[in-house]
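Issue 218. Parser rejects a valid record. Input:
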Amino acid sequence: MVYCNKCGVENPEDAKYCQGCGIELNTHPEPKIQDHKPYKNSSNEKSPLGAAALNLLIAGAGFVYIKKYAKAVLSFIIVFTMAIIGVLMGISYVLGILALIFVMAWSYDETKKYNQKLN
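Output the parser choked on:
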């Protein structure tokens, strides 16, 4: 089978003209440009584990790493607020630690999405 370079219609190998658009078919068809994936530069990819680990320094730092500043501020507020509520409830920093684990998982997931958009 021969594919038309213009419209992509499948034609018999002995066809001289495309059945879809009528253009003359080449005997040695060149691949369509859209069939080739362009070279992807992965140098801008970020490490999801690195983003999660950065939150151990400051809650939300993992989001700063991928330039999601609103989520970084929200993450910090969540962890700080939950830690204060935990202390006031007399359960120490348990809620803050749970919130930090949540933020770490969230930034890990967001970094994977960030990398997928690059590809």
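Fixed in the parser; the record now loads. The beta strands are 2-3, 10-11.
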